Amino acid sequence: MRRTILLAVSVCLFIRVGLCQSPITISSDSSDLSRPISTLLDQIRERQGLPVTYEDPRYSNSADIDDVTTKISHDPSEAERSGHRTLIPKGKAISFVYAPTDFNSSQQAESVVARMLQEYRMLGGPTFRVMRDGVRLHVVPVDVLDAGGNRARQGSILDTVVSVPGGPRDGGGLLQAICDEVKKQTGYEVGVGPSAPSNDLDGYRTTEGIDHMSARSAIERVLDKSSRPGSFVWDLYYDPGDKSYGLNFTYVGPARTPDSLR
Amino acid sequence: MTVGGCTPNPDWPITGTISSGQFTFTATNNGCSQSSATWVTYTGAVGTPGCNYMYGNYTNSLGGSGSFGVDEPYPIGLPYDTREVDVPASESTTIPTGAQWNTTHGAPWTPTLAPNSPKGEYEARGIYEYGNGAGTDTCWFKGSKYKQFITVTTPGFEWLVTSKNTWGVDWIGWSLAAVDYYRGQGRVPCGATFPQLVVIDAAFSPNNPPTYSSYLNQAGSLFYGIGYETNTIGGNIMATSVTSIRNNQTSTNTTWK
Fold first, then answer.
1. Hey, which residues does A238 pair with through a beta bridge?
2. Residue B125 sits in the same domain as residue B194
3. Which of A197, A202, A255 lies closest to B217 in CB terms?
4. Would you call A124 helix, strand, or coil by DSSP?
């Protein structure tokens, strides 16, 4: 009897350990291939709680772009008349396999994200790299196909060094001022999306400005002074039609309800 | 049975004061109890979170003294003095007078907890918001430069209830940049709605309702609370106006054209 119990416990432990080490496969969404790397990062954020940001390259090659104007407009004939085109990125399907233990340390996490980006490049996608800045990892573009089909180097727009004069404002005002400064220097609009953590940003009242800092670090600074450091990350999406960016936010912090605590 | 010619009565009349959670009150023997003390004075505090437990010290007319309760909202194996936590029956929502829409945050809302009797019933209690399932966003399309707007943006965020029984400001709605974008893509009229679970903090009491549960707030701290309402929040984008919606109330902005 005692041996049976020991055997049962051993089997249970074996199964549990085995499950913990089972590889995890994450995949792009076959019905929406506009931003496969962002889709995979969303899954990693949710499963591993990893604070990692994402930035689109500025796509310009027709092979990387879909025209969806007539599909998405409520009035396609009006859209045709106006001449405005709705263009979206067109990515490659990808599945990626990792082990949960790959995220045991920040260095390991960086390595596994780098491996994922390398695999995506091998599929013909643009080159991304991952870098660490403070408590977050950042996935940023390195190159993308130009109009002629050649890989052309392209850095992160958030490398832009910005300065914003001090003045009384809340975190939302400071975030907007940073985005305005990026537009002033690069010509690209960065629109703050509706997912901005407004209640946190409103609670951060400051007279501070930004003094010669990368836009990336400046945005991190606003987020981390408004809320627990690293609890919000962003996805910076590029619209190849309007040639502008949308800044989206995702909460990856510790807040949980009873359902998700179980 | 009578004592000294009257029916035993365990209730002692009390007088006292309470301010900012600190209290002193004296209970006086009405002469009809079996105690030989003529009075007992309690000095202590109402504890937060929850405001449903107390602790402090007492003295009585016989020279006796001691402590009561414990300064611990979630006592395990400790002597506690608690009562069933007060939970709002509902909340109403108004837009603060003179409040302005914000190009990043949308519209400001100030909820008022009900019942507000006695006045300031929930003052100093913590209110938290959480998502409660996914919503819908009819402005979004695959490939949009904005992600779907289908859940609360600050889960675990805490507000403190004011002396007027209000909390907030709770910012809800579209940013101006998203409004301009979706209009430009020919997506309007369109909108987004999603559920917002609102939770009020509570200390332990054996008499608490069964929905008393543990949560993690934005800072990662564990607290116990009770979800008292799930609101529908969101907003719509039209060709020449924008709305912010909270609990069937609508704030309309006609300047974002």
1. A245
2. yes
3. A255
4. coil
Q: Are residues B198 and B178 in the same domain?
A: yes
CB contact under 8 A, A84 and B178: no
Q: Residues B4-55: pLDDT tens digits?
A: 556 666 788 999 999 989 999 999 988 776 778 899 999 999 999 999 999 9
Residues A253 and B217: their CA atoms lie apart, in Å, by 9
Element spanning A133, H or E: strand A127-133
> How many residues can be counted in chain B?
257
SS3 A1: coil
Same domain, B108 and B63: no
A1 assigned to some structural domain: no
| CB–CB contact A248 B185 (8 Å) | no
All residues of chain A having their beta carbon less than 8 Å from the beta carbon of residue B149 are: 193-195
Distance, in Å, from the CA atom of B121 to the CA atom of B102, rounded to the nearest integer, reads 31
B146:A195 CB<8 A: yes
pLDDT confidence of residue B3? 47
Q: Which domain holds residue B203?
A: 90-253
Residue-wise pLDDT for B82-131, tens only, equals 999 999 999 998 876 667 999 999 999 999 999 988 888 899 999 999 99
Looking at the 3D structure of chain A, how many domains does it have? 1
- Per residue in A208-224, pLDDT tens? 999 999 999 999 999 99
If DSSP codes are grouped into helix, strand and coil, which group holds residue B195?
strand
> Domain boundary at B44, B65, B82, which?
B82
Among A89-93, A193-197, B117-121, B242-246, the minimum mean pLDDT is found in B117-121
Q: For chain A, how far is it from start to end, CA to CA, in angstroms?
A: 33
Residue A21 forms part of a structural domain = no
The pLDDT tens digits of the residues spanning B199-232 come to 999 999 999 999 999 999 999 999 999 999 999 9
Q: Which helix (H) or strand (E) holds B235?
A: strand B222-237
Amino acid letter for position B87: V
Nearest chain B CA: its distance from A188 CA (Å): 13
Residue A20, classified by CB atoms within 10 Å of its CB into exposed (0-12), middle (13-18) or buried (19+), is exposed
Per DSSP, B173 falls in state S
The identity of residue A148, as a single letter, is G
Out of A86, A193, A227, closest to residue B178 by CB: A193
For chains A and B, CB pairs below 8 A equal 164
What pTM was computed for the model?
0.91
Q: Position A185: which residue type?
A: Q
